[in-house]
């Protein structure tokens, strides 16, 4: 396995500071490390992005988030050098975008409806499909939870004007980063910080805090028996699943993401993280 991490923008032969601890841990574990130019990837110049990657082998990316199309171009550029990403472009999209994983995890995550555009007519159809009550708004890849009342929380799905005001503000804030379409998720009340679980080839490899709340450690003995067969059925090589306890005591899936672009909390050491990743990926 080879680990690919973003290059430091000021010292392009070195890993980006954010991912340097994982790069150092990988090298200490005997895993080859190469850097990629993240800025070139986002400028649609994937060939330039991978010029420092040695030819041949299987690679895992650990870096900043990429749009699905950018990841696909990244995969193709690496393939031209004989390097195969452990997560294919199709698998990345299915993990990175909610419609790719929702149906498999529907029993354990809030009920959702989505659009394929940013049009108000489509938004209203999804809103009515979801029904009554409150909802949380996002697009295929991200919410604006830090703008909760203005661009995320819809108190009443039956109020079309107020709901669209939230959607319009969401569109304004997401701007060119808006991905896929609107997603409306039925609002559920949660009583804990989120727990981030890391899954390799359908098996849970690590359980830790969410990167936003690294000191809120998960409870011991978290029961994942219901979730495990659902994740295995997704057939995705490396994902994270964020969980929180609902006010009735049931743990629910808040988000599934591709593990390559999910942030590691500081309370999981890079050495433990790379040991789990190295054990699960050939």
Provide an overview of this structure:
The chain is of the alpha/beta class. It folds into three domains: 2-85, no CATH class; 95-101 and 190-280, D-amino Acid Aminotransferase, Chain A, domain 1 (2-Layer Sandwich), CATH 3.30.470; 111-186. 34% of the residues lie in helices and 22% in strands. It is built from eleven helices and twelve strands. The chain has helices at 20-28, 38-42, 46-49, 68-79, 89-96, 98-105, 120-130, 148-151, 160-174, 227-234, 270-280, and strands spanning 2-6, 32-36, 57-61, 83-85, 112-114, 135-139, 153-154, 182-186, 195-200, 203-209, 238-245, 251-258. The chain has a four-stranded parallel β-sheet with strand order 2-1-3-4. A four-stranded antiparallel β-sheet has the order 5-8-6-7, sandwiched between helices. β11 and β12 form a beta hairpin. The protein is globular, with a radius of gyration of 19 Å. 40% of the residues are buried.
Which characteristics define this entry?
single chain, 282 residues, alpha/beta, D-amino Acid Aminotransferase, Chain A, domain 1, 3 domains, 4-stranded parallel sheet, 4-stranded antiparallel sheet, 11 helices, 12 strands
What's the short story on this structure?
With 282 residues, the protein is an alpha/beta fold. It has helices at residues 20-28, 38-42, 46-49, 68-79, 89-96, 98-105, 120-130, 148-151, 160-174, 227-234, 270-280; strands at 2-6, 32-36, 57-61, 83-85, 112-114, 135-139, 153-154, 182-186, 195-200, 203-209, 238-245, 251-258. A four-stranded parallel β-sheet has the order 2-1-3-4.
């Amino acid at each position: 396995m080879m680990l690919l991490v973003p290059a430091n923008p000021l010292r392009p032969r070195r890993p980006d500071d954010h991912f340097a601890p994982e790069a150092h841990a990988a090298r200490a574990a005997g895993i080859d490390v190469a850097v990629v130019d993240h800025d070139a990837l986002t400028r649609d110049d994937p060939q330039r992005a991978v010029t420092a990657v040695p030819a041949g082998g299987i690679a895992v990316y650990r870096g900043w988030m990429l749009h699905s199309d950018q990841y696909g171009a990244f995969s193709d550029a690496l393939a031209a050098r004989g390097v195969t990403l452990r997560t294919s472009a199709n698998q990345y999209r299915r993990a990175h975008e909610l419609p790719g994983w929702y149906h498999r995890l529907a029993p354990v995550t809030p009920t959702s409806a989505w659009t394929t555009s940013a049009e108000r007519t489509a938004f209203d159809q999804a809103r009515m499909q979801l029904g009554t009550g409150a909802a949380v708004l996002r697009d295929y890849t991200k919410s604006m939870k830090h703008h909760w009342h203005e661009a995320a929380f819809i108190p009443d799905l039956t109020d079309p004007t107020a709901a669209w005001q939230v959607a319009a503000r969401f569109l304004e804030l997401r701007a060119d980063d808006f991905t896929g379409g609107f997603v409306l998720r039925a609002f559920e009340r949660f009583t804990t910080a989120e727990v981030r679980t890391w899954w390799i080839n359908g098996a849970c490899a690590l359980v830790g805090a969410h990167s936003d709340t690294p000191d809120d450690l998960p409870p011991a003995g978290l029961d994942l028996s219901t979730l495990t067969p659902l994740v295995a059925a997704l057939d995705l090589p490396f994902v994270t699943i964020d969980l929180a306890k609902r006010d009735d005591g049931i743990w629910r899936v808040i988000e599934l993401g591709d593990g390559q672009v999910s942030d590691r909390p500081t309370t999981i050491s890079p050495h433990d993280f790379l040991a789990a990743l190295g054990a699960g990926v050939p």
